[in-house]
Amino acid sequence: MIFGHEIVDTEVIRQLVYALAMVLIMLYRSEGLWPSPKHEDKIAKLSKHSGKKPVRA
Questions:
Q1: Intervals of the chain under pLDDT 70
Q2: I need a labelling partner for 57 at 20 to 30 A (CA). Which of 2, 15, 34, 40 fits?
Q3: SS3 of the chain
Q4: In Å, how far are 15, 26, 35, 52, 55 from 29, measured between CA atoms?
Q5: Neighbouring C-beta atoms of residue 43, cutoff 10 Å
Q6: Centroid of chain to Cα 39
Q7: Confidence (pLDDT) at 53
Q8: CA trace torsion 32, 34, 38, 43 (10° rounding)
Q9: Model pLDDT, residue 23
Q10: Radius of gyration over every alpha carbon of the chain, rounded to an integer in angstroms
Q11: Alpha-carbon gap, residue 55 to 57, rounded angstroms
Q12: Do residues 33 and 25 touch, judged by C-beta distance below 8 A?
C-alpha cells in the first residue's frame, strides 16, 4: 500500500508467482517432476523376469 491505495492486490501477485513457477518448470523439466520410465526400461525389466533377451527391430 502506498498512501492508502493498493497498486496491485497481493492475490494477483501470488497467482503471477505461481504461474511463473509453472512456466519455468514446463521449460526446464518438460518430462515432469517425476518422469515416467522410458519404454526401453520397461522392456529391459520384463526381459529380466522372463530370462529372454529383448528383441530390437
A1: 1-3, 37-43, 49-57
A2: 34
A3: CECCECCCCHHHHHHHHHHHHHHHHHHHCCCCCCCCCCHHHHHHHHHHHHCCCCCCC
A4: 20, 5, 9, 34, 31
A5: 13
A6: 18
A7: 60
A8: -160
A9: 93
A10: 24
A11: 7
A12: yes
> What is the pLDDT, as a whole number, of residue 18?
97
Q: Are 22 and 33 in contact (CB under 8 A)?
A: no
Residue type, 42: K
Write out the three cell numbers for 15. Answer: 497467482
**Cell matching residue 22:** 509453472
Residue 40 has which C-alpha cell?
526401453
